From TrEMBL:
<dbReference type="GO" id="GO:0015658">
    <property type="term" value="F:branched-chain amino acid transmembrane transporter activity"/>
</dbReference>
<comment type="similarity">
    <text>Belongs to the ABC transporter superfamily.</text>
</comment>
<dbReference type="Pfam" id="PF00005">
    <property type="entry name" value="ABC_tran"/>
</dbReference>
<protein>
    <submittedName>
        <fullName>ABC transporter related protein</fullName>
    </submittedName>
</protein>
<dbReference type="InterPro" id="IPR003593">
    <property type="entry name" value="AAA+_ATPase"/>
</dbReference>
<keyword id="KW-0029">Amino-acid transport</keyword>
<dbReference type="GO" id="GO:0016887">
    <property type="term" value="F:ATP hydrolysis activity"/>
</dbReference>
<dbReference type="InterPro" id="IPR027417">
    <property type="entry name" value="P-loop_NTPase"/>
</dbReference>
<dbReference type="InterPro" id="IPR003439">
    <property type="entry name" value="ABC_transporter-like_ATP-bd"/>
</dbReference>
<keyword id="KW-1003">Cell membrane</keyword>
<keyword id="KW-0547">Nucleotide-binding</keyword>
<dbReference type="GO" id="GO:0005524">
    <property type="term" value="F:ATP binding"/>
</dbReference>
<dbReference type="GO" id="GO:0015807">
    <property type="term" value="P:L-amino acid transport"/>
</dbReference>
<dbReference type="InterPro" id="IPR052156">
    <property type="entry name" value="BCAA_Transport_ATP-bd_LivF"/>
</dbReference>
<dbReference type="InterPro" id="IPR017871">
    <property type="entry name" value="ABC_transporter-like_CS"/>
</dbReference>
<keyword id="KW-0067">ATP-binding</keyword>
<keyword id="KW-0813">Transport</keyword>
Amino acid sequence: MNHPINQSAAHALAIDRLEVHYQGITALRGVSLQIKQGEIFTLIGPNGAGKSSLVNAVTGIVPSTGSIEFGGREFNRLPSYQRARLGVIQVPEGRRVIAPLSVLENLMLGREALGARKGDVQADLDRVFALFPILAERRQQLSGTLSGGQQQMLAIGRALMGHPRVLLLDEPSLGLAPVIIADVFRAIRRLNEEGMTIFLVEQNARLALETAHRAAVLEQGRIVKQGEADVLAHDPEVEEHYFGQAAH
Ligand SMILES: Nc1ncnc2c1ncn2[C@@H]1O[C@H](COP(=O)(O)OP(=O)(O)OP(=O)(O)O)[C@@H](O)[C@H]1O
């Protein structure tokens, strides 16, 4: 952690005994976590640990049992679009930009999360373009022709168009060159410094722990460690299992 939490320590998300089952496969087994308002919380763990399942359960893309409170209100029975409308918005693994649409058209899709209260579109675009100037330059370009890093920026920008209060990022560094990863993570820190709560899922444990305030380790659907990111970064088991080449 290299920057302070700049808001109160109220819980933005309180996850309690969350379970996700796919036919015959249990992906999450009684996961309990609390994400504080204004922090960057990171979830690290190996391939297949259930990290994406947790993000998808929080945003309602996959069904789960157990409780998820957002701002003190139980919301695990709400459909995904209502969760987005309340400000819980995901940047999916693999970016998922719509290749045949332009950068601008992809950004406009992010406004769907706003429902009827659309507000000032230009102000929202200006905010995204201030964070990622390359998207302003390329606004008319088809998204499928962007580089991986630019697509990741677009995926984040699209989520920002929906006014997230909690932004969930699933593996934002995946497949990107180090210099581009640094740009993306600088933007993530900046959003947090402006007050946004961030839930970051990463296989790049070193980077994730450097960026976050608090962290948890997920293995085979269970939380096996949880604490201050600084402390976990110096935990010998974390160093051994997650800081080698295999981490990414
Ligand atoms: N739609 C699905 N149907 C069946 N099984 C699934 C589905 N999605 C995930 N799984 C399984 O659930 C478990 C957890 O997967 P999940 O994608 O949540 O893990 P992960 O930690 O995000 O891994 P990765 O880093 O590879 O994305 C794995 O065993 C995976 O094969």
